[in-house]
Amino acid sequence: MSKHELDSMIGQKILLIDNDIEFLKLTSRVFMKAGAQVITARNGMEGISKMLTHQPSLIILNVIMPRKDGLQLYQDIRQFSNTPLIMLSARDHEQLMLQGLEAGVDDILSKSINPEILLARARAVIRRSEHSDDHHAAFNYDDGRLEINVKKHRILIDGKPVKLTPVEFRLLLYLVSNADRVLSFDQILANVWGNEHEGNHSYVHVYISHLRSKIEQDAKSPRYILSIHAVGYLFEKQGMYSSFEKTFESLATG
Q: Which residue range is the domain that position 49 belongs to?
């Protein structure tokens, strides 16, 4: 690992929530060696308390824990925080991993993963989160029904707030910022999840389904997020402005 890679975690706070002491010790060493500040917690209540106190850059959370499992804890955290989160699961808990994906976690990995690979994935999640905030800082969209205010991290449908997970929010911004342009599955994966997820189109389909259920009037007959068969998806602008544009273009082309 190069010095540049090691330095990339300097200034980052990582909160590890797991009841496995050996895992906490081993993973803490790897992240601290990379320059990160590491905070550990052995249960959900301690994890939430430390999250509020330390305001971490990233949370790494084990699915299987006593009292309250990781999925329940994730839902609790999302009530008041959009901190990027990686969920870990044992290899024989694929159904739980699927549930985590559907819940909207930023990344899901096997707990048996090499700590160095976990470090690389953590860097990627933080980088995507920071890049998304910077890239879309001045971006807004309002068609009279759907309103997106990036600076305030706010989504409104007919004036009523809609709650999106960080990944759903990042996906929507990518689609809208490329409105009326067909985006392939791999383009969406690379820009929302990163190149390490190349070919995993199920990520895209699951999150598009969740996004449609939250912003479309009828998720089965979407008007915003259109499927382009075997290619990808397209966000189509709606509202009077979009209609005027289309009318003008049709008149101009005769």
A: 3-134
User: Where do runs of H (alpha helix) occur along the chain?
Assistant: 3-7, 21-33, 44-54, 70-77, 94-103, 115-135, 166-177, 185-188, 201-215, 240-252
The model's pTM is 0.63
> Alpha-carbon torsion 201, 107, 79, 178, what sign?
negative
Name, in order, each residue with C-beta under 8 angstroms of 166's C-beta and a sequence gap of 6 or more.
82, 84, 85, 104, 106, 129
Task: Assign residue 96 the CATH number of its domain.
Answer: 3.40.50.2300
Question: How much is the pLDDT for 134?
Answer: 52
Q: What is the pLDDT of residues 33-46, one digit of tens each?
A: 999 999 999 998 89
Amino acid present at 29: R
Q: Residue 142: what are its φ and ψ, rounded to 5°?
A: -155, 115
- With a cut of 70, say whether residue 228 has pLDDT above it: yes
Last residue of a domain, one of 108, 134, 160: 134
CB 166 within 8 A of CB 155: no
The answer to whether residues 33 and 52 belong to one domain is: yes
